[in-house]
Amino acid sequence: MTSINTNNSAMSALQTLRSINSNLETTQNSVSTGYRVDTASDNAAYWSIATTMRSDNKALSAVSDALGLGAAKVDTAYTAMDSAIDVVDEIKAKLVAATEDGVDKSKVQEEIGQLQEQLMSIAQSASFSGENWVAGADGTMNVVSSFVRDGSGAVSVKMTDYVLDTSSTGNVLFGMNGGSIETSTGILGTADANGDSVYSLDITNFTTGQIQSALSTVESALSAMTSAGAQLGSISTRIDLQEDFVGALSDSIDSGVGRLVDADMEEESSKLSALQTQQQLAIQSLSIANSSSQNILSLFRG
C-alpha cells in the first residue's frame, strides 16, 4: 500500500543511512587517531586499563632517568676509588723501597707526601649531583631501582642501597665533618695502633721495623678499598641490568597497551571504503524511496 502520510520505505532507508553514518564516523575516527579505543565511551574497560598502564610507563621512564643518574654516581665513585687504589699502590711501593739500606727516607717521604695530596684531590673531586660517595658521612646511599604496582593496586618505588659504614673504617676514603673532609676518619684517615694512617704517614725518621708496620697499615687500607671498589662494581652491574629490564618492561607495556587500543589500519581502511560505498547506496535508496510518493500525483493527472 502506498500512503501519502507514511513513507515506510523512506524511513527504512533513512534508518539504514543513519546507522552507516554512525559506523563511518567511528571508522574515520579510528583511521585518523590510530586507536580503536580512543575514549572511555569506546570501551570503558580497555580504556581504563590502557590509561593506568600508560601512567605506570611514565613512572618507569622516570625510574630509567633516575637509574641513569644513580649509575653516574656509582661510576664516579668507582673511578675515584680505582684511582685511589693506584695511588696507594704507589705509596706501598715507596715504602718497600724505603726499607733498603742507605735510602734517603726524607726524599721518599717527599714523594709519599705528593701521593697523599693526590689522594685528597681524588676524594674532593669525586662528587656527582652534589653527592660524594668516597668522601662522606657514614650511612647508606640510595639509588632508585624500580616502580612496582602490587595486586591490590598500591604503588611503591624500590631502592638499591650502598652501605658506607660496614666496617670500622667504612667504605669511604675520608669521612666528613660539618661539610668538610675529615682526614682522620675513613679508610685513608683511620690511624693504626701506632697512630699512623695512610694519609698522615711520615716515614722521615722511621726505622725499618716502623716501615714494616706502616706497610701493614697500607696493605689493610688497600684491602678495604678493594672491597669497597668491588661493592661499587657490583652495584654498577646491578644498575645496568635494571636499566635493561626497565627498558624491556616499558616496551612490553607499550606493546600490551597497543594490543588493547590500537586500530588495525588495514582492517579499518577496508571498512572505511566499504562504508563509503554503503553510504552512497543508502543515499540513492533514500532518494528512490522519497520519489515514490511523487508518483501518486500521476494518478490524478488528466
UniProtKB/TrEMBL annotation:
Q: Where in the cell is it found?
A: Secreted; Bacterial flagellum
The molecular function terms in GO held by this entry are: structural molecule activity
Domain named Flagellin C-terminal: residues:
216-300
Highest taxon of the lineage: Bacteria
- Tell me the InterPro entries matching this sequence: Flagellin (IPR001492), Flagellin_C (IPR046358), Flagellin_N (IPR001029)
Please provide one cellular component term from the Gene Ontology annotations of this protein.
Answer: bacterial-type flagellum
Keyword set for this entry?
Answer: Bacterial flagellum, Cell projection, Cilium, Flagellum, Secreted
Give the chief site where it resides: secreted
Q: What range(s) does the Flagellin N-terminal domain occupy?
A: 4-136
What is the purpose of this protein? Flagellin is the subunit protein which polymerizes to form the filaments of bacterial flagella.
Q: Which PANTHER family match?
A: FLAGELLIN
Q: Which family, according to UniProt?
A: Belongs to the bacterial flagellin family.
Q: What is this protein called?
A: Flagellin
Q: Which organism is it from?
A: Rhizobium leguminosarum
